Amino acid sequence: MRHLIYCFLLIIGPGIASAQKIFEGQVVDKETEATVPGVTVKLLKEGKGTQTNNRGYYKLISADTIANDSLHFTSIGYKTLRVPVTAYQQGMFIELEASTTELKGVTITKKAPRKPVLNKFSLANIKEYRFKSAYGKYANRTWPFRARIMVAMKMKAKHKNVRISSINIGRREFDENYYPDGQLALPVPHTRFLVHIMSRDELTGLPDQKIYTKDIRLSDNSQMVIIDVSQDNWTVAGDTFFVAVEWLRIPINQVLQLDADLTVSKTTRSGEQKLGEAPTYHILYQPAITIMDTKVKYEGYKMNEPGIWQYITSPLAISATIMD
Amino acid sequence: MKYLYFIILLFNIPGLKAQTVTNNFRIVDADTKRPIPYASVSLPRASLAMNTEADGLLSIPGDLSKMNDVLVITAQNYTPSVSPLNKLSGMDTIQLKKYPYRPVNIPVSSTGKDSVLNKFTWQDVTYFAGVHSQHARFEYLQIAQQFDSPAPGAKLSQIFFRRFATWGTYTERTRFRLRFYDIDPVYGTPGKDLCHEIIEETNKDDPRLTVNLQKYNIIIPGKKFFVAIEWLRTFENAGYAPNRAERNLVYKPTIGILPYKTDKLNIWVLNYAHQWKPFTYFSPYYTDLALSATVKW
């Protein structure tokens, strides 16, 4: 019988610790789905608190979680949100609703102008759903994707001379073989990768030349990564281009994965073989990009061998926001 | 009686392809003639290393007279033995000489203070050393963390480290040894042993390990010292990386790397030639093991 255990590093501890618990995730604007920095996050009864970083990400390590405690999220311009710790789910998005302030008859609402988004996806497309399945206690509708070298998603705008203001990428953990005991794995938080804007080869329709490149370094487990390039003057002459993610196979991106199986553990002098369990360690490389929960068709290509692009049908969470 | 075979030598050393002979050795104490358990045996040129089992027996198949490698045998409290393989032909015993252990002769610091050196939050540890990666093979006998003690004469009372362990049906059962070193005054590497007792630990599946060292009376003479994990390269500790193949053997436990950067690299590894080298795999990002030490001073 084969035992297959996929295990990722960050959750090993919390899975075993008794009362210690890690609360982490991203806080977003309920309407715009933009991440919200500077939100105060507090475990009310335990008294521990932190603030979200510039990606709206927070992480709180609770030394001894109180069963009826709750997480409070407060920020100027938003209504305070209370989430009981019993309702918290690993990596969940916290959606804050903008508050409305009335000053002498003038109503001020927090509302940003919308920009066109190519290959748009929402939080609903990338968040991890947990539902009971026929095979285990829980399953997911979103999946991780990784290529050996690169992946590129085709973007088509309504007009030429497209100026890109931001790239959005949905990330998630590497729990490819979901372990049915309930606890999800998270990526190693320190991640570095390259984002490219690539032209389209007119003959083959494949990604061609790298036009722009940005080196991205993350130090948290945020699942919605918004890369602001509005100051970089990324302008594409035509109306079609690719947004590509290139993996860097460097130690900082390593995620250790374990596969345990029966193997010959010993051969005696008489030739008798004894069986035992032995681990096989695999190293995966961050990031894992979310394969979305959507039926919308996207055109994308992966590169697992240098110079060879292969068509993929997976709808990857990579979008580009452009100037109108 | 248990025998240890260097079967994988077949793939690495010329002259073994048509081997018909098996050379059996017993590694013994030169004075008592008793076997030395779990002696570390390595062949630097072939990049192979194993430990003998409790009976100190070692078997090498092939015609030793045609082999060009050297056999390095080390054991705690013994002077290392380095012998060309072709000089071992016809022998059946390899004797290691015990070196005299001289306890540290320094006044013990007694301010009554405790300090935890290289303190860390274990939940932050997400990187591990001990497996081969795509770019580098992990071929080391020991891995050590360098510490700066608050005062000469401090006593090492406890260590704590993070390792890779899982939950579920498979457990990362492991057995390993702990070593403690003074600094080598010339090279700045781990030098003399600070403890002559063999400290061997076993563990089933804990990702966090605490070892109380009070009873060993380990006194740190200067302000720098090293704590090392010595892998027992035995069948029970063996695993594979990245795939199941003899050349891809690795040994438990894997050791956590702190995801922080300090101003100097404090991780050292002992290679198959028994030389201490800085562990640069995670450089320049990470500089320390997930291993803390508590000292009384």
Number of strands of chain A: 24
Q: Which sheet architecture does the biggest sheet of chain A show? A: 6 strands, antiparallel
Percent range for β-strand residues of chain B:
35-45%
| Total separate domains of chain A | 2
Number of helices of chain B: 0
Whole-number total of structural domains of chain B: 2
- By DSSP, the count of extended strands of chain B is 23
Q: Kindly report how far apart the N and C termini of chain B lie.
A: 47 Å
Q: Please name the CATH architecture of the largest domain in chain B.
A: Sandwich
Globular, elongated, flat, extended or rod-shaped: what is the shape of chain B? globular
Identify low-pLDDT runs of chain A. 1-18, 178-186
Question: Which chain pair shows the most residues in contact?
Answer: A-B, 41 and 43 residues
- The helix/strand class of chain B is mainly beta
Range of helix content of chain B: under 10%
User: What global shape of chain A is seen?
Assistant: flat
Round the mean pLDDT of chain A to the nearest integer and report it: 82
Classify the oligomer: heterodimer
Radius of gyration of chain B: 20 Å
Ends apart, CA distance between termini of chain A: 58 Å
Give the structural class of chain A.
Answer: mainly beta
Topology record:
The complex is a heterodimer of chains A (324) and B (297).
Chain A: H1 9-16, E1 21-29, E2 40-43, E3 49-51, E4 57-62, E5 70-74, E6 81-84, E7 93-96, E8 101-103, E9 106-108, E10 117-118, H2 123-126, E11 143-145, E12 150-156, E13 162-170, E14 190-200, E15 207-219, E16 224-228, E17 234-236, E18 240-247, E19 254-267, E20 273-285, E21 289-291, E22 300-305, E23 308-312, E24 318-322
Parallel strand pairs in A: 1-7
Antiparallel strand pairs in A: 1-4, 2-3, 2-5, 5-6, 8-9, 10-24, 11-21, 12-18, 12-22, 13-16, 13-17, 13-24, 14-15, 14-18, 19-20, 22-23
Chain B: E1 22-29, E2 40-43, E3 48-51, E4 57-61, E5 70-74, E6 81-84, E7 93-96, E8 114-117, E9 127-129, E10 140-148, E11 154-162, E12 174-183, E13 190-193, E14 199-203, E15 208-212, E16 218-220, E17 224-231, E18 238-240, E19 249-251, E20 255-257, E21 267-271, E22 276-278, E23 291-296
Parallel strand pairs in B: 1-7
Antiparallel strand pairs in B: 1-4, 2-3, 2-5, 5-6, 8-23, 9-20, 10-17, 10-21, 11-15, 11-16, 11-23, 12-13, 12-14, 12-17, 18-19, 21-22
